[in-house]
Amino acid sequence: MTTKVLNVLTGINRASGPSSGSMILVHDLYGAMPELHTTFLGRTPVEQPWATSFDHLITLSTPKRPQGPDFDRYLDELTREVGGLIEKIQPDTIHAQYVGLALSLAFARTAGNTPIIAIAHGPDVMAAELSPRERETLKEVAAASAAIVAPTAALADRIDRLTGRRFTDRLTVIPWGIPLHDAHVHDQRPAGTRGLALVHAGRLGENKSTITAIEALTLTHQPHHLTVIGHGTLREQLEQRATELGLRDRIRFEPFLPRAELFSRLPNFDAFVFTTTGLEAFGLVLIEAQAHGLPVVYSDLPGVKKVLGGGGVPCTPGDPRSLATALDELGRDAPRRKALAKEALRNARRYDIATTGRQLHALTLRVMRDSVGPQVDGIALGTGQASRNPQLKA
Fold first, then answer.
1. Using one digit for the tens of pLDDT, what is the confidence trace for 270-319?
2. Residues contacting residue 239 through CB under 8 Å, at least 6 positions apart
3. pLDDT of residue 373
């Protein structure tokens, strides 16, 4: 019997390169699912090494325009372009990244009988919580989807509430993952009088609250040093604040690093600092840090503790004094750091990108089976371990 390769259409309405956690995730994820033929819709410029995870990459030609008076016309133009591509490609299924953003809405309005799996990333849910229009968009995409994927039960529940719990049975929790084979670990070093070598990595925006980490260093009793890796709208303000506080000898700012370079740097630190104050969909960088043997000092947000397991130390979100206390306690207790590092490594092993790929592939097969019947053209239906309800253990 000939096994048919499923033809999947997906995409993110951004430049096609590793500019964010979501872009890095889809690069890793579809590279981990060679049994799917994936066509990816993106934007120029295209980083060629990044594009190789997809069998076919198409750059969208409709000029992108943000929310505003011209948005409806932009959405109509994008929808016509996407509809033409669907007719040409004839995908077996669509993976709509970002529930409720423009590209997913275009998919929802042009998919016809092609089943859609909507995949939430976090910013889409945050937008729906803040804007009635975005909320209606999210509801429209959810209604058009055969399944809705979230990386944590906490995020799935937020989607469930935003949609009036009309689509609870469509929600599936599939934890995200990273390529664990690329991670390397160094032995934990005693901090001594030098303090901890701390790292914070991610987009430098309001929600990440990097300022909390900077201000915490003025309150610590040990001379911890912090390296901030990333780019974003607040970079200049953060550097200015570090200067105002007299911390430039203890804080180093570095640009966004490609995955391989970041992975080579992480083992050189003692702990990772996570200061997000709002919604965090999953926090891939947390698992990246743990996979390199780093304990994580983290904002105690819904879902984060469950992702980190026992390999982290909580603090109050947005509270520099709470973070400072946690850092000093960790700096004084080398045996605890060693135990946390061991638990971090153990926990990270739960999040291999290959596992994420298997679960999404199994869900795709189930959606196809449900849409066309038990015989899916010779495809051997798999079994995944994803939870089909946000209240179930993920």
1. 999 999 998 788 888 999 999 999 999 999 988 899 999 999 999 999 99
2. 253
3. 62
* pLDDT tens digits, one per residue of 238-259: 999 999 999 999 999 999 888 8
Q: Is 328 helix (H, G, I), strand (E, B) or coil?
A: helix
DSSP state of 232: -
Can you say whether the dihedral through the CA atoms of 386, 201, 157, 309 is positive or negative? positive
Q: Which domains does the chain have, with CATH numbers?
A: 6-177+352-372 (3.40.50.2000), 181-348 (3.40.50.2000)
DSSP 289: H
- Residue 193: Cβ-neighbour burial (10 angstroms; 0-12, 13-18, 19+): exposed
> How far does Cα 358 stand from its chain's mean position?
17
Minimal CA–CA distance to 185: which of 352, 351, 345? 345
Separation between Cα atoms, residue 145 and residue 117, nearest integer Å: 6
DSSP SS3 for 122: coil
Give how far Cα 206 sits from Cα of 3, 234, 244, 246, 357, Å.
48, 7, 19, 22, 31
- Check: CB of residue 131 under 8 Å from CB of residue 101: no
Query: CA 102, 104, 107, 108 torsion: positive or negative?
Result: negative
